[in-house]
Amino acid sequence: MNLLVLTNLFPVERIPTSGVFITKRLQVYEKLGMSYTAAPVPSGDSSALTFLRLTVRKKPFRASESFLGVKYTSLRCCERNVRSFIISKLMKNGYVEISQRFAKCFQRSLDISQYDLIHAHGMYAIPAGLVARFIAENQKKPFVVTVHGCDVNQLMRSRRDVYIETFERASAVIFVSKALLEKAKSYGYSANNAHVVPNGFDPKIFRPLDKDVVRKELGVYREKCKYVGFVGSLDEVKRADKLIEIFSRVRDGFQKVTFIIVGNGHLRKRMEQEAKKEELDALFTGWVTQEGVAKYMNAMDVMILPSRREGFGAVVIEAQACGTCVIGSSNGGIPEAIGFDEYVVEEGEEFEDRIAHKVVQVLEKGYDREKLIERAKDFTWEKIVQTEKKIYEQVLGSVKREFQSNWSV
Q1: What is the pLDDT of residue 49?
Q2: Mean pLDDT estimate for the chain
Q3: Measured on CA atoms in the order 278, 279, 281, 283, is the torsion positive or negative?
Q4: Residue 92: what pLDDT?
Q5: What SS3 state is found at 35?
Q6: Is the pLDDT of residue 58 over 90?
Q7: Strands, sheet with 117-121, edge to edge from the N-terminal-most edge strand
Q8: Cα separation, 344 vs 262, whole angstroms
Q9: Which of 67, 72, 345, 367 measures 20 to 30 Å from 352, CA to CA?
Q10: pLDDT for the residue numbered 17
Q11: How does residue 83 score in pLDDT terms, banded at 50, 70 and 90?
């Protein structure tokens, strides 16, 4: 089986771990007898900084040629089209036109006939799924789309008709959570070709370690101290604007506690100032490697994920694989990722108070670490990709049956 993988989520030179859950999938492909060409479809960031970079003819963020042994094939004609995207945003449905340009670029540069199936990850600013649809319809190939969160939660509302048409024409649409599928259905998607397959984790990286040993290695060890943390982008979607408030309330209920914030984002400077004002014992790590994330997760007694929106929340599974309890909001796919009702805090009034109270309860009472580790075993990348491979086989089997039926006629 030979696949063309188009993805809005991919490693870039500045942040090689970007889109790591696509890279991790691809690492497993060859092990399961699948070959592929992975090609980035830039997300089309339209921020002022990116606009300036493009207008002065500097290169946009380029995909890394390879990461973790996975090769990404960047096409120059596609990179040139990123500049056109800035202008297309001024036009109604301009993203459709730019997606058609990308589709033509791929067809000129690659021999599409060699691929059995096209799998697109993401329906973001320049939707990889829409690019895949245009290629598939022109080349008479089946295509599959996976959506990961913001593409449905944020963009689908204003792009409803095009997204629904793309989903309905796909051979299969994969959602990383049931909650994300329900969101798409609320916009009118039939779900006749829908599948739910979450993101996974690498068990070689995310595994339980001795907490005190890791804390000493990281230089954060405090005797008889508890550790509460967060992993993710420091932005409003993740509710990072309320993170220091939550941590302050945890500290008020449990005196000897250290806070670890892993990640980066535009709120970081403000959060550091708030933490200093509140006199919190808080460490801001910035972006770290996956191995580093795993160590910090092991150092935590509790990790929180208070997001306002979330496709699935793979960091939950990663933390559980390390034996660390995760407490999260009831939004999006977070409850599905957590898997235990007692660690889910309902969205609503006084949310910050209630999640802080839950954290304090868990710090005081403890939890069954082995139960978390055992649950995470169902989410290894190998198991996730095996599930996706079955979907591919179903799609190709259906195409074969349709061909045989047409031939007999």
Answers
A1: 40
A2: 90
A3: positive
A4: 64
A5: strand
A6: no
A7: 35-40, 2-7, 117-121, 143-147, 172-175, 194-196
A8: 21
A9: 367
A10: 76
A11: low
- Residue 260, beta-bridge partner list: 229, 283
Cα distance from N-terminal residue to C-terminal residue, the chain: 28
DSSP 81-150: HHHHHHHHTTSTTHHHHHHHHHHHHHHHHS-GGG-SEEEEE--SSS-HHHHHHHHHHHHT--EEEEE-SH
Is the pLDDT score of 408 beyond 70? Answer: no
d(CA 303, CA 367): 13
Looking at 184-255, which runs of residues are DSSP E strands? 194-196, 226-231
| Residue corresponding to tokens 């169902």 | 378
Q: In terms of DSSP bridges, do strands 117-121 and 2-7 run parallel, antiparallel, or are they unpaired?
A: parallel
Q: Are 216 and 352 in contact (CB under 8 A)?
A: no
Confidence of residue 320 (pLDDT cuts 50, 70, 90): very high
Mean per-residue pLDDT, 172-183? 97
DSSP designation for 254: S
Q: What is the DSSP string of 150-199?
A: HIIIIITTTTHHHHHHHHHHSSEEEESSHHHHHHHHHTT---TTEEE---
261: three-class secondary structure by DSSP: strand
Place of tokens 């649809």: 133
Return the residue matching tokens 């051979």: 171
Cα 336 to chain centroid distance, Å, stands at: 15
Task: Supply the Cα-derived Rg of the chain in whole angstroms.
Answer: 22
Global pTM value: 0.89
Residues 231-240: tens digit of each pLDDT = 999 999 999 9
Over range 21-45, report the average pLDDT: 88
Supply 111's token pair: 């021999």
Question: Is residue 244 over pLDDT 60?
Answer: yes
Please tell me the total number of residues recorded for the chain in this structure: 409
Q: How would you class 255 by CB atoms within 10 Å of its CB: exposed for 0-12, middle for 13-18, buried for 19 or more?
A: exposed
Q: Do 142 and 117 form a contact (C-beta atoms < 8 A)?
A: yes
Mean pLDDT of 208-225: 96
Give the model's pLDDT for residue 60.
46
Cα angle 134-136-138, degrees, rounded to a multiple of 5: 70
Residue 71 CB neighbours (<10 A):
12
What string of DSSP letters covers 314-357? Answer: HHHHHHHHTT-EEEEESSTTHHHHH--GGGEE-SSTTHHHHHHH
